[in-house]
Amino acid sequence: MKISKKVILLGHFGVGKTSLVKRFVVQKFSEEYHTTIGVKVDKKEVVIGEHLLTMILWDIEGGKSQQHLPPSYFAGAHGIIYVFDLTRPATWETIEEELTYFTERLPKAYKRIIGNKRDLIDEVQLREFQERFKGSYDFLSSAKTGENVEELFLALGLDMLS
Ligand code: GDP
Ligand code: MG
């Protein structure tokens, strides 16, 4: 069966939202910094079990405050990917309040919380992080190496089919 679901990317400026979408959709990574202008919508078809799922991925404008996103960004979203940057504590310190705000707007949406840039932290930092934040995120990913990128999108896809 053919189904399509809208997924929105959320998280601070520079955490890797655009890079994760790019890695997932076209298997590429770039070190260049392109500020996303406005909203970019990408599509990716995935096969999950007997379903052909089209994930419609909405990626937010770089510098825009997340609290001032237009209602159309949220409208009809089935899934949220919230991204923070493992190398920048400021990007995860506000997760709880931000997620509360987004969940109020989208009480039925499925969520995945992602710590990105896994390639930039070493094993010791990784273990410290895992111990301290156990259970408060879903995946640690790298848009650069591709680690856990398919996994995080497919996990959300599977939820959205249920
Ligand atoms: P956005 O503002 O959340 O969309 O962030 P971008 O996707 O534009 O990424 C911001 C910067 O971080 C860019 O220079 C990317 O190349 C870099 N970046 C994104 N993801 C990763 C990652 O997993 N590892 C590394 N090393 N750099 C990353
Ligand atoms: Mg971006």
The total of beta strands comes to: 6
In order across it, which strands form the biggest sheet?
Answer: 2-3-1-4-5-6
SSE run: EHEEHEHEHEH
Q: Which structural class best describes the helix and strand composition?
A: alpha/beta
Structural overview:
The chain is an alpha/beta fold. 30% of the residues lie in helices and 27% in strands. It has helices spanning 17-26, 71-74, 95-105, 123-132, 149-161, and strands spanning 2-10, 40-48, 51-59, 79-85, 110-116, 139-140. A 6-stranded mixed sheet has the order 2-3-1-4-5-6, with helices on one face. Helix 3 (95-105) links the parallel strand 4 (79-85) and strand 5. Bound molecules: guanosine-5'-diphosphate and magnesium ion. The site of guanosine-5'-diphosphate (GDP) has 20 residues, from helix 1.
Descriptors:
six-stranded mixed β-sheet, 162 residues, 5 helices, binds guanosine-5'-diphosphate
Give a quick precis of the structure.
The chain is an alpha/beta fold and 162 residues long. 30% of the residues lie in helices and 27% in strands.
List the helices and strands and how they pair.
Blueprint: E1 2-10, H1 17-26, E2 40-48, E3 51-59, H2 71-74, E4 79-85, H3 95-105, E5 110-116, H4 123-132, E6 139-140, H5 149-161
Parallel strand pairs: 1-3, 1-4, 4-5, 5-6
Antiparallel strand pairs: 2-3
The structure holds guanosine-5'-diphosphate and magnesium ion.
